[in-house]
């Protein structure tokens, strides 16, 4: 499962947003759902059931997964589906203040000389809720895996 999480987080860190899919004529792979058309993809039935009022929907295939970027109830979210169309995870960028208190306390204690540059809430179907936080220091930048209980581990060391 680590490889799956790595693939998602790598996709999240490499793209701050998705490229918008082009509109096409009826029958061109887009489906009209009470408003604008959305691209057709494996897992779309689940997506439409779970996020019925989604807008600004676009998707792209990254490796073994389909990444769906969209807005739902005012939140910019991402949903990930495997190639069979099964849901794998959802994520969203959050502010540091939205991290659990134990995580904030441990970040302040263990990474006090670092600046938090972004935080992602990641809810995997198999692994549950966790967070990925990017911190930048004078010499290093790290992508940290943060549990809901506040446990922090280095997920990836990145170049400055």
What's the oligomerization state?
A: single chain
* Strands, total number: 10
Which secondary-structure class do the elements indicate?
alpha+beta
Number of domains: 2
Contiguous low-pLDDT stretches (5 residues minimum) are 1-7, 12-36
Please tell me the overall pLDDT.
81
How much of the sequence is in beta strands? 35-45%
Q: What is the approximate shape?
A: elongated
**Which range best describes the helical content: under 10%, 10-25%, 25-40%, 40-55%, 55-70% or over 70%?**
10-25%
Main beta-sheet annotation: 8 strands, antiparallel
Count of runs of 4 or more consecutive helical residues: 3
H/E element order = HEEHEEEEHEEEE
* Rg value: 17 Å
Q: Within the largest sheet, what's the order of strands?
A: 3-4-5-6-7-8-9-10
Distance between the termini: 28 Å
Give a quick rundown of the structure.
The protein has 160 residues and is α+β, with helices and mostly antiparallel strands. It contains three helices and ten strands, in the order αββαββββαββββ. The protein has two domains: 2-89, no CATH class; 95-158, Nuclear Transport Factor 2, Chain: A, CATH 3.10.450.360.
Structure commentary:
The chain is an alpha+beta fold. It folds into two domains: 2-89, no CATH class; 95-158, Nuclear Transport Factor 2, Chain: A (Roll), CATH 3.10.450.360. The protein contains three helices and ten strands. It has an eight-stranded antiparallel sheet with strand order 3-4-5-6-7-8-9-10. The protein has a two-stranded antiparallel sheet with strand order 1-2. Strand 4 and strand 5 (75-82) form a beta hairpin. The protein starts with a helix and ends with a strand.
